[in-house]
Amino acid sequence: MADSPSTETVVLRRGKDDVTRRLKADICVVGAGIAGVSAALQAAKLGRRVILVDSQPALGGQAVNSIIATFCGLFSNGTHGYQFTYGIADDLLAFLERHEQAIYYRHGPRTTVVYYDEVTLGRWVEQSILAAGITPVLGAMLQSTQVEGGRIVSTDFMTRYGRVTIEADGYIDASGDAALLWQAGFACREPARQRVFGTQMVVLENIDESAQPTREEIGARMKERAESYGLLRREGLGFTIPGRGIAAMNMTHVETPLDPVEASAKALEGKEQAARAVEFLKAEFPACFGGARVRSFGLPGIRQTRWIVGRHHLTVEEIRQGKKFDDAIGRTAWPIELHDHGDGHHWIVFDEDHVHYIPLGSLVPQECENVVAAGRCIDADSAALSSVRVMGPCIAMGMAAAHALDLAGSGSVHQIDMADMRARVVDNVERQHYRWDEKELASKVTAA
Ligand SMILES: Cc1cc2nc3c(=O)[nH]c(=O)nc-3n(C[C@H](O)[C@H](O)[C@H](O)COP(=O)(O)OP(=O)(O)OC[C@H]3O[C@@H](n4cnc5c(N)ncnc54)[C@H](O)[C@@H]3O)c2cc1C
Predict the structure, then answer these.
(1) Is the shortest distance between the CB of 58 and ligand 1 below 6 Å?
(2) Class of 20-192+303-448 per CATH?
(3) How far is ligand 1, taken at its centre, from the CA of residue 426, in Å?
(4) Helix runs in 58-160, H state only
(5) What is the pLDDT of residue 440?
(6) Could you tell me the residue ranges of all domains in the chain?
(7) pTM for the full model?
């Protein structure tokens, strides 16, 4: 017979010192999106004690929780694109391939992307972080920082279970909003005029994949009819994820202000816009979307808000020229994709042999000795950032940030040995590995 349930209780009162936990690490990564996860995994591979913190109660940032749905910028342009980023990216692609959730798709003659399932990606992140011995601290919002002599020496986070204080030799700001450097009082940038729009992503189920309209058809109909559905954006996509009977929809443009009250209001407005976009698809393309239901809304998709003042401000001109920096740490050929007006976005595609590079100088804050940024808050003008913030280069940036802090140890990231640094990131800057040979290409990469 089962024991009787325990009914004893203890009565407690909170003590004066409300610090729940004090933790120490070599490297503390703030932000567990694709850039932060990549940084944490790389730092752990280098033998560092790593803590990975995120304000969400889940890992994966936008890649998982905003349902971005495709990895872009991982392959060079052209029908036979080679891979740009290796290491962590190889681990990730191998996992998705093992679970049959890496769908390689080439759009037109140029850009090859990887469709993924966000649940599988989430599992890769969770399993990899645990296997690497990284300490995750989730649901933890950055609250304050202590700065001494240009170094962040400790950080405080508030969680639902109390405060966590983390001391580390080095920090990676992978928060997307430069939250760490901003909080610490270092200079940051915001757009002088036009802000960059975000998007509320939606996953639709019960669609008929065989009746999928082309991108051009959806685009043309949006131009013509979007206004009558109350849609701000006049272009956008409802694209099926091949073989899964679902579609991802990115037909909204939503402001993403840094004011907390406005940000909350805009996030809800984004869902209203998305619901109207679903009505548009159902009514205008009933063969494919007539029976569509919303399966999930992603968390608000935020492209660009606030970012660091680095040693180097990457410009769109440098990107157009494909300038190869001495301190290059990653590369891509993804188009300029600047969502700076409500009804559309700039989309400037590069030639087949074009490559552009990201310098370490854009990851290293001018005024701070022991922080490296990675992901969508590095230093670049808005047009340049719109290309290099896609997830392929975000992985390369995370890896580079970990290497830079590993080389710096308890010293300054401004004084690392650049020959060592170059040797560590050489694959992500120089290697040209073709993932598929000539025979495999047709069966492995679907051409749209
Ligand atoms: C709608 C949309 C569609 C896109 N489409 C594509 C695409 O198809 N393919 C592609 O490759 N890229 C795409 N991008 C770009 C790409 O998804 C992002 O730039 C990339 O995911 C950014 O990764 P990140 O790690 O820098 O930041 P994020 O994923 O934003 O991660 C930052 C993390 O930091 C945490 N954080 C923030 N502030 C704090 C704080 N104060 N305290 C603690 N934690 C904090 C957040 O919770 C978050 O988890 C898209 C972006 C958007 C918005």
Answers:
(1) no
(2) alpha beta
(3) 25
(4) 61-65, 88-98, 118-131
(5) 82
(6) 20-192+303-448, 202-297
(7) 0.96
